[in-house]
Amino acid sequence: MPRSRAVTPAWHHGLMNIMLFHSTYGLRPAVRQAADRLRDAGHQVWTPDLFEGRTFDTVEEGMAHQDGIGREELLKRAVLAAAPYSGRGLVYAGFSLGASVAQTLALGDDRARGLLLLHGTSDIAPNARADGLPVQLHVAEPDPFETDDWLSAWYLQMGRTGADVEVHRYAGAGHLYTDPGLPDYDEEAAEATWRVALGFLASLEEPPEPSEPAEDSPERDHTGS
After folding, report:
1. Which of the residues 3, 8, 36, 87 has an alpha carbon 20 to 30 A from that of 170?
2. How far apart are CA 67 and CA 51, in angstroms?
3. Positions of the chain with pLDDT lower than 70, given as ranges
4. Coil, strand or helix: which one is 122?
5. Which positions ≥6 away from 95 have C-beta within 8 Å?
């Protein structure tokens, strides 16, 4: 049966609670700058360090470190980082590798409020459900890591989960074109991405405020998923 998406009160009222995951380069300054940009728009943002302090100057070094940790351990670290806040109804977001991680967590969290993917996607389990989940993807065109055939298949599969998906392509940009410290950087594409992404986040509906229980009503126990 389709999974219904639970609605829980946001603890950061009015805007979104965002879990933002870094790329295979690690928790670089660009990730912190992106988090600050989101905070300036009023959102609350967490930036877990899945590499535990390691950063890299090349994609080859980062991927070697990523492979050494292993996908299962990376996901475990991501889940542990998000768990204390998942009851708030998180928007999962990430860059490249981090987008892959964000997608995996969002599809496993029926309290997720949205999914913002920058430069990356991931496999989708055949039985995955994400009914009504707003999803926005930003990716270069072409992108050596996100080929046209892959993206077409991903879009169809994500649609079958029930997610509400939109894809934005940026012709001529490099893979990680939002990072000013990398050769991929494309200022025009990056600024366009952030304008659209901030609009996407602003469009997400805040869950209703919980009603106050009557004085003589028993207090209900709320458990997170």
Report:
1. 36
2. 11
3. 1-14, 206-225
4. coil
5. 21, 22, 23, 31, 34, 118, 119, 120, 176, 178, 179
Strands 114-118 and 90-95: parallel
DSSP label at residue 154:
H
Cα–Cα distance for residue pair 26/49, rounded to 1 Å = 7
Neighbours of 158 (CB within 10 A): 24
Dihedral pair phi/psi, residue 149, rounded to 5°: -65, -45
For 34, the token pair is: 């992106």
Amino acid at position 224, single letter: G
pTM: 0.86
pLDDT at 205: 75
Distances (CA, A) of 183 to 58, 59, 175: 10, 11, 10
Determine the Cα–Cα distance for residues 145 and 120; give it in Å rounded to an integer. Answer: 8
Cα 92 from Cα 82, distance rounded (Å): 9
Residue 15 region by backbone torsions, left for phi larger than 0, else alpha for psi between -120 and 50, else beta: beta
